[in-house]
From TrEMBL:
Active site positions, chain numbering: D103, D290
Organism field: Solanum tuberosum (Potato)
GO molecular function terms noted in the UniProt entry: aspartic-type endopeptidase activity
Domain of life: Eukaryota
Name under which the protein is recorded: Aspartic protease
GO biological process: lipid metabolic process; proteolysis
Keywords from the UniProt entry: Aspartyl protease, Disulfide bond, Glycoprotein, Hydrolase, Protease, Signal, Zymogen
Upper taxonomic lineage: Eukaryota, Viridiplantae, Streptophyta, Embryophyta, Tracheophyta
Keyword set includes Glycoprotein: yes
């Protein structure tokens, strides 16, 4: 959740319904929190996002530790229609309770402040009162976090933070004094607790889970997520600090090393639809495991192919059909003549340089609003051209005729995601939809239609939403995939900073 790499990601991060949480201590010495959840309706949606600068400022192996050890702690999670997971923490002495999203895609903790007077959102959520806490320590340094669909600002404070049964002392966090816009106005959660690395922490504040390790509250610098994707069950899931709960996964975990410290980023291989390669990641892609993003985000080129294969309906892109109509034959001729694919779009003057858009130009267009219109049009045509090249390559490999290729291209144009990123599917067609698979650590991780489609609302007006949304990140950081809750709900995920790795196993 929050600002991610590249263009704006309008992932369907759905609002969370809060209800009282009950703490209990089980026989294995772990603290568990009771969970409730409710169905989603169309009015209860919040969209996470990525800003155009590609800077995240805050939008699941059996390990050596014994899960029954007192040095391992479990946080139970609420599940809001398989869309977002959250739990309860407290700050101060005596404890002031807040419900937060546990977000591996950011690194700061923030909650509303009692000094938030001019944002309506603050009046709808509990507010931290420093004057009521005997362990509060003043900091006062200003802070701001910008999301794709909203922002918060305020200042740092220091106090004790209780997560489950663990008390983290002297934790820096942000008191939000402004929460403009509707994103947090409608939200049912109060704040966010980031579980990313300190490298992406606003103000370089030490993340909560760092302090858990530094203060000896857990034996291992490991935490793990289990998301309960059964919409009929009350239990939403568990977040375990210091180890894993073996009852929530099957078999062994597949581990991959963290390749870029900041996010939990790793290398990902091919993407397959119905067992057939999409070709785009044959040379490798990067991915992020992100508990704060509800859907699964990837390059528009592949997301469009996936949504076409599953029958998802997006908004017709006139730019896409224009490129196919005006430049399609030229692109096809160049591919058939064995021209370098990465040079084709620059050869026909739709891209400013070989291999993609001029990244510096894009950044300047964000900073310099005077250049935004002209650069934006050029960038869009370049992006569509790059997609067209990949689509045509895949069709040529199958020895399709030119007529069939152009027909397929226009159908893909029709499947481009809507401006808000979501695409709808027919709820009655799940049985005929293909499985979508991802290769991680030389192992294939498969998602069935029942696992990648979200149902919104109650019958008879239930709508089904594709779990795939578009996100374009240019090289060298991209192409990038965000494996959000759609993926993490299917695969129990371990975040191991001690060995700098991420692990996946089939959820139980």
């Amino acid at each position: 959740m929050g600002t991610r790499y590249g263009a704006s990601l309008a992932a369907l991060c759905l609002l969370l319904f809060l209800s009282p949480l009950v703490f209990s201590v089980s026989n294995d010495g772990l603290v568990r929190v009771g969970i409730k959840k409710r169905k989603l309706d169309q009015t209860n949606q919040v969209f996470g996002g990525i800003d155009s600068n590609g800077v995240h400022s805050a939008r699941k192996y059996r390990l050596g530790g014994n899960v029954g050890d007192s040095d391992t702690d479990i946080i139970a999670l609420k599940n809001y229609l398989d869309a977002q997971y959250f739990g309860e923490i407290s700050i101060g002495s005596p404890p002031q309770k807040f419900t937060v999203i546990f977000d591996t895609g950011s690194s700061n903790l923030w909650v509303p402040s009692a000094k938030c007077h001019f944002s309506l959102a603050c009046y709808l959520h509990p507010k931290y009162k420093s004057s009521h806490s005997s362990t509060y320590k003043k900091n006062g340094t200003s802070a701001a976090i910008h999301y794709g669909t909203g922002s918060i600002s305020g200042y740092f404070s220091n106090d004790n933070v209780k997560v489950g049964d663990l008390v983290v002392k002297d934790q820096d966090f942000i008191e939000a004094t402004r929460e403009p816009g509707i994103t947090f106005l409608a939200a049912k959660f109060d704040g966010i607790l980031g579980l990313g690395f300190q490298e992406i922490s606003v103000g370089k504040a030490v993340p909560v889970w760092y302090n858990m390790v530094n203060q000896g509250l857990v034996k291992q610098s490991v935490f793990s997520f289990w998301f309960n994707r059964n919409a009929e069950e009350e239990e939403g899931g568990e977040l375990v600090f210091g180890g894993v709960d073996p009852k929530h996964f099957k078999g062994e975990h597949t581990y991959v090393p963290v390749t870029h410290k900041g996010y939990w980023q790793f290398d990902m291989g091919d993407v397959l639809v119905g067992g057939e390669t999409t070709g785009f990641c044959s040379g490798g892609c990067s991915a992020i495991a992100d508990s704060g993003t509800s859907l699964l985000a990837g390059p528009t080129t592949i997301i469009t192919q996936i949504n076409h294969a599953i029958g998802a309906s997006g908004v017709v892109s006139q730019e896409c059909k224009s490129v196919v109509s005006e430049y399609g034959k030229t692109i096809l001729d160049l591919l058939e003549s064995k021209a370098a694919p990465q040079q084709i779009c620059s050869q026909i003057n739709l891209c400013s340089r070989d291999g993609g858009r001029d990244v510096s130009m894009i950044i300047e267009s964000v900073v310099d609003k005077h250049n935004e219109a002209s650069n934006g049009v050029h960038d869009e045509m370049c992006r569509v051209c790059e997609m067209a090249v990949v689509w045509m390559q895949n069709q040529l490999r199958r020895n399709e005729t030119a007529d069939r290729i152009f027909d397929y291209m226009n159908k893909l144009c029709d499947r481009l995601p809507s401006p808000m990123g979501e695409s709808a599917v027919n709820c009655n067609s799940l049985a005929s939809m293909p499985n979508v698979s991802f290769t991680v650590g030389n192992k294939t991780f498969e998602l069935t239609p029942q696992q990648y489609v979200l149902k919104v609302g109650e019958a008879p007006v239930t709508q089904c939403i594709s779990g795939f949304t578009a996100l374009d990140v240019p090289p060298p950081r991209g192409p990038l995939w965000i494996l959000g809750d759609v993926f993490m709900g299917r695969y129990h995920t371990v975040f191991d900073s001690e060995k700098m790795r991420v692990g996946f196993a089939e959820a139980a």
